[in-house]
# Entry
Amino acid sequence: MEQKITALRERFAFALSNVADPVALEALRVEYLGKKGLLADLMQSLRELSGEGKKQAGQFINALKNEVEQTIRSAAEAQQKAELDKLVNGAKQYDVTLPERTLHGSYHPISLVQREVEHIFVTMGFTVEEYPEIVDDYHCFEALNIPKHHPARDMQDTYYLNNGQLLKTHTSAAQNAIMRKYGAPLRAIFPGRCFRNESIDACHENTFFQMEGIMIDRDISIANLIYFMKTMLSEVFQQDIKVRLRPGFFPFVEPGFELDISCLICGGEGCPSCKDSGWLELCPCGMIHPRVLEMGGIDPNEYTGFAFGLGLTRLAMMRYGVKDIRDFNSGNLRVLAQFT
Ligand code: FA5
# Structure
């Protein structure tokens, strides 16, 4: 019996030296001290003995049991302390007394100019609306008086999806939904990303931003349109800039205009940013076509309105003197760093 007890003591010491975590320690406790554990087994084997030998062996087994209990308790305490030390040492890596570190980030210049224009229109009573980038043919074309096979569809090279939907080619795609949502009178702007399968150059991107605006009320005229365009441009540029308004064709406005600004990169001399013309097409606009009002659920006999489609990316070029539109989508952090 004495040999058995000694062997179990050694086995326990070896097993304990391999215990790595609290789960393993608990398993060891159950293995030795549990109801059907190794020490209980040893107690059972006392039945084979009698007299003084039994008494002595019982004392040895009890002593071993106490020893195992005490060792496991100490090991659990040591594990808890190690765990706590780990936490405390981890916390020591943070010095809460250090001054805060400045993070170097910036808004994209298009976001900056978008916020600026939004602010200008909001102060003039316009709401800012959102519209998805994936739209259907009806909203992008038909509800804008551009039926299927109309030659005006060729004005925008459209990216179609396999399911028949398409990537928004212009923010005008939201006009119908916004008219139907709010009815008249209505003042709203809706910025958004547009996509066209275009050849790219210094002033054309295949992914660019526009901001659409519509104002619908009784007796809205071209005079209102010109007033709002002038106010917006003088607020954005804070300087006198040359503007020209010329006739422009868009099936959803009548009459329609092209609003160009004198190129601020070359001062109107001609450069790649303005395709050597000295002028930049910035904000086509016009009086909303009666058919478009009607499709938007607004009575054209009672209401009139204007709409404009501001080229936000081009506005950002002029506002910040960015010569090449491709810099905006380049992902070049040196471009962004200039706007911190
Ligand atoms: C339109 O998209 C019309 N929906 C605008 C409109 C709205 C007219 C309401 C009348 C009433 P256009 O295709 O010309 O029109 O684009 C409008 C503006 O978006 C352009 O003047 C230009 O500033 C900008 N733009 C157009 N194509 C690109 C491009 N590929 N890259 C960068 N900017 C572009």
